[in-house]
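Narrative summary of target 7.
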Amino acid sequence: MELLKNRFYSMSLQKAREDEFLILQQWKIRMLEYALKFRELSHFAPAYVVDKRLKMNPFRDRLNLGLKEKMVVQHYALYEDMYNIAVNIKRATKEKNEFYNE
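Modeled conformation, tokenized:
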């Protein structure tokens, strides 16, 4: 991965992508978009996602506030588990909002 990154991305572009990762927040973007962007940019910031457990912290901490407060009360063993739970919470919240808005 490192060889491909160095071959196809200039150092300045790599640094720009790392900086973009460091400020990435979910805020109002859809969960899937946030997760895809997080995964894409994390390749440019390996020091912050050395392993799957460390990868969970920035992912969770940058979720929108409503979702984040629901996520912090649970313990996650794997990044994939945390991602799946976040998606399920987001889906349930959307269904609840649609139900009450009808």
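The chain has six helices and no strands.
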